[in-house]
């Protein structure tokens, strides 16, 4: 009941005309970003954060806009999967399986509409799940002490490589590098650490610069190396002839996919790739030999799309309640929260209730907007797919430059961003994941603070870190998070590969 | 071949040692030493990094090929363009430096020079107008400020 009251207040925030306008803008931009090959949701949100700052938006408005971008990008990812057989990101891989065959049969419009409806259902189910689960988890998280938080952060890092990650040890390396960067600057006792006397480093490294550099600039460099842009046969979109029966036919698939996706999203480290994968395999199992999967079965489009979008909303649960993001994009959203001076975590639900519930309400509204946007406007997004990346990526890079520049007006930050871009390129070459670096940068100060508090409480006795049952549980899960990828990861990757016949790009 | 991870691992161990040594040199904070001083967390990190890098040296992954040949030169050009863009942003102004930077990038990525620099110019003017008038954020104009209507 309490929740309902908050939610109604949240709708009050989200339905304010200017917030609604920014939600619409975000949904549109997000779909665009998702649709364009080479730009994933994490990239898109990262590039738009500096712009949101330079606009001087109120915290809830900025958050509403960027969650809409996030949701939109998850919607948009399917467009290039269906029309070009190029998944925009890893979760979209499964949509290629039946989406592209549908498009080849001249049913591109139906495939796009079905995927839009399924995405909507997936997000809707997950948002309802978020509304029910988040307050409970937040209340539970209030019982955490500093030692539990310290263990929770370790859990976040351990599971971040995710079961689709390749070498868990590289996740550890990446997390360390991020944490090390986070120690630069003046610490809480007033000691200068690793500033090398450079004035710009006294306040530490701004993670927005790191994020934009690591994601956007390294993407440009990667593209130059690939040069794979354009030249793909483009599908023409037929006139949509969708009957109610078609939509009814995919409803069960969407609902199953959405529920599974939500669970996959909430679980740390599992994320959208797993969501879309199990969404697809479940459909295949349930429908059995009556289906014609791989040859353009609409249920094969609906299942993974609902799973994918359910997972992306589900990933907001740990991010909002514990301050621990489960995916790259939620890590970027966390960066936004921190830079808005909002400490994510259980307290946010009491201290910034209007913001949390405003965002959740905006997510619901955003999904309706996306559904409305996506069915009639799909032609526009399709046309934008034909913009060759050789023009697009330089312009996007320039927008990232302007965004950073307009925050600080400092050339130093831009040089730093380029340096991060080059480092990001080298890391990606070495298969060092970038998201743990970002997460290290974000969580480093909190992690150190909690370590300090725990030790103060225990008078310097290290055993406090694994003193409570809860803390031990978190340590065990963290350990599992590091070990499981060795066992489950290759299995899942082999299956996804066997199912799609491709390796696919790096994931969410 | 498994050289990449090994070389990277060695570099990281060097980093871990340097970082840990740096931490041990921090001055004692005002008010005396504490249970957890400014050096504790960095020392932990340097230990974890050293151990995990050791693993990379012992159990490296197969290498990805580096683009040594022409593509490598293109990459260097791109980075140089980005650095030059940063350096020229203030003196040359936003529109001109964007024209040059975006144009050069598009051109090097395979667009015809004319279309590339037209794209750069249009992008520069559009973004400048949006930032200056719609968002009220001043971007440097450089020599073009002569054109400004006061």
Automatic annotation (TrEMBL), chain A:
Superkingdom per UniProt: Bacteria
InterPro entries from the UniProt entry: DUF112_TM
Membrane-spanning parts: 20-39, 45-71, 111-134, 140-160, 172-192, 204-224, 258-282, 322-343, 355-385, 391-407, 414-444, 464-488
Domain spans labelled DUF112: 20-439
Keywords, comma-separated and alphabetical: Membrane, Transmembrane, Transmembrane helix
PANTHER family xref list: TRICARBOXYLIC TRANSPORT PROTEIN (PTHR35342:SF5)
Name recorded for this polypeptide: Tripartite tricarboxylate transporter TctA
Automatic annotation (TrEMBL), chain B:
Family matches, as Pfam families: TctB
Keywords associated with the record: Membrane, Transmembrane, Transmembrane helix
UniProt source species: Halomonas halophila
Sequence intervals crossing the membrane: 41-58, 117-135
Domain DUF1468: 7-140
InterPro entries (UniProt xref): DUF1468
Protein name as catalogued: DUF1468 domain-containing protein
